[in-house]
Structures are given as C-alpha cells and as structure tokens.
C-alpha cells in the first residue's frame, strides 16, 4: 500500500463512528430474583387470530453495572435465538413494558433490542418488565405437560 493510500485509510478509520469502537459485554444479572421465563400456559388468554396471548407478569432485573460507572453506554435486551420446543423464531414474540428507565419494546428469538442509552451512574441498575408472550401454537412442539422456557440476557455496549 503506498503512503498516500495508507494515510487515507487511516483517516477513514479515525473518522469512523464511535460505535465501531464499542465494547460489548454481558451484564451480570445473577442478583435478579427470577430471570428465567417459564410458563405452562395456565395463564393463557384468548386467541388473537392464530396467536395465544400469554401475559407473563412482572420480571425484576438487577443488573451489575459497577464496571461501567461513568461511561456512556447502551443496554440491550437479548432474546435467545433458540427456545426449546419452538420450531421457528416467527412462532414467538416477546413484548415488554419497562417500569423505570428502560424502554418498552418487543422482539423475537435471536433479537437484540436496545432498551437504554446514557451514562451509567450507579453500580446497579434495577428494572421491572411486564412481559407478554404472543405464541403461534402451530410453531410449538412441546412434549405434553412441558413448559415453554427461556432466559433473556442483557448486554452493555460502552464507548472507550
């Protein structure tokens, strides 16, 4: 690579958005009372078209953010790509309503949805989501009596 071309390449890298330099890590949520979503469909409500609406209720999350205090960050809610008994990600939609600083939203298995953006101020972030699952029963292959179960995680993306 000649000198002028190398300088242009370096300049291009330096002018790239800060997001290209972001560091991603899983947030420790082990202090959360109940992070796993598990349902035996006992609370299933009436069908909405071809979907079963399953209000799951409140899930409390306690996220360890101490290593990131003072840093600009984005936090993502990550739904696992594989859910036992589910044939296709199209068979499940997870909807949540944040009850604090986190944004409400929805996603399917494999989605990574931004729920917070700002400067981390405290060593712990506490949030409660009201979860509702919308399930297409044609996409489920659960053994009789088995429950639908998955555990979403949170990731933090910080800028240096």
> Biggest sheet, open or closed, and with what strands and sense?
5 strands, antiparallel
Strand order of the largest sheet: 3-4-9-6-7
DSSP strand tally: 11
Beta-strand level of the residues, as a percent range? Answer: over 45%
What's the number of helices?
1
Helix content: under 10%
- Please state the structural category: mainly beta
Bulk shape = elongated
Distance between the termini: 29 Å
* Number of discrete domains: 1
Integer average pLDDT = 83
Low-pLDDT segments? 9-16
Element order: H for helix, E for strand: HEEEEEEEEEEE
User: What's the Cα radius of gyration?
Assistant: 20 Å
Tags for this model:
160 residues, single chain, elongated, mainly beta
Give a brief description:
Helix content is 8%, strand content 46%. The protein has 160 residues and is mainly β.
What does this protein look like?
- The protein is mainly β and 160 residues long.
- The chain has one helix and eleven strands, in the order αβββββββββββ.
- It has a five-stranded antiparallel β-sheet with strand order 3-4-9-6-7, with no helix packed on it.
- The protein is elongated and about 50 Å long.
């Amino acid at each position: 690579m000649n000198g002028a071309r190398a300088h242009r390449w370096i300049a291009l890298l330096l002018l790239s958005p800060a997001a290209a330099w972001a560091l991603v890590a899983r947030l420790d949520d082990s202090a959360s009372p109940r992070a796993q979503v598990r349902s035996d469909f006992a609370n299933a409500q009436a069908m909405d078209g071809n979907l079963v609406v399953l209000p799951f209720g409140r899930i409390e999350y306690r996220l360890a953010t101490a290593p990131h205090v003072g840093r600009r960050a984005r936090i993502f809610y990550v739904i696992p790509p594989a859910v036992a008994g589910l044939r296709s990600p199209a068979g499940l939609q997870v909807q949540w309503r944040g009850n604090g600083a986190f944004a409400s939203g929805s996603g399917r298995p494999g989605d990574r949805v931004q729920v917070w953006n700002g400067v981390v101020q405290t060593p712990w972030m506490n949030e409660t989501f009201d979860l509702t699952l919308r399930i297409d029963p044609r996409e489920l292959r659960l053994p009789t009596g088995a429950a639908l179960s998955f555990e979403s995680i949170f990731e933090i993306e910080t800028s240096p």
